[in-house]
Specification:
The chain is α+β, with helices and mostly antiparallel strands. Helix content is 18%, strand content 32%. It is built from 2 helices and 10 strands. It has a 5-stranded mixed beta sheet with strand order 1-8-5-2-3, with no helix packed on it. The chain has a 5-stranded mixed beta sheet with strand order 4-10-9-6-7, with helices on one face. The chain is globular, with a radius of gyration of 16 Å. The chain starts with a helix and ends with a strand. About 23% of the residues have low confidence.
Length: 175
């Protein structure tokens, strides 16, 4: 519950910031995100804050990679994933579609709350280690450590996509 409140508070602060800026880069607009592999680009520090669904992982600790395809049929392929407790996974996203998609990992209630915020503030700029925004034809990744057992979700929370069923399940089983 506290994690969801923090997420909501951060989202509202980000939204308030958008309302006060004259010039804004919208995360869900047509603008591309900076390419962290571009010459001279500095890698952003990943915030390692424990979430109900795990914590940001280190690339050096990745035990396996799982390709995730995003489609304009509003589906993820695969849409069900099993991981072992303690496993660090690299999700390698490919957007096969013609529109922007994203993958956001969380609990069902956290994703519901975020989806509602996205409907109210569709241009809301946000970026966390448990989400990846992927341009049409593009690639992205999330490195995540699943240090809590349970059933979690991943979804595209761009307005309309979540409602159309662009949702998947992650089952974290004890090793």
């Amino acid at each position: 519950m506290q994690t969801r409140r923090k997420f909501l508070a951060r989202s509202l602060v980000a939204t308030a910031g958008l309302l006060t800026l004259d010039r804004v880069a919208l995360a869900h607009g047509d603008a591309k995100h900076a390419d962290p592999k571009a010459a001279g680009a500095k890698a952003a520090a990943v915030e390692k804050e424990q979430q109900d669904w795990g914590i940001a992982g280190d690339a050096a600790d990745v035990s396996r990679s799982i390709p995730i395809v995003m489609t304009d049929a509003m589906r993820f392929e695969p849409d069900r994933i099993e991981v072992r407790l303690g496993e660090t996974i690299r999700f390698e996203h490919h957007n096969d579609g013609m529109v922007l998609h994203e993958m956001v990992i969380g609990t069902a209630p956290a994703l519901e709350e975020h989806a509602e915020l996205m409907k109210k503030f569709p241009g809301m700029e946000h970026d966390s280690p448990w989400m990846a925004h992927v341009a049409p034809g593009g690639r992205g990744e999330i490195v995540w450590t699943f240090n809590r057992p349970g059933e979690f979700r991943f979804a595209c929370l761009i307005p309309g996509h979540y409602e159309a069923g662009m949702i998947g399940t992650i089952i974290v089983i004890k090793a």
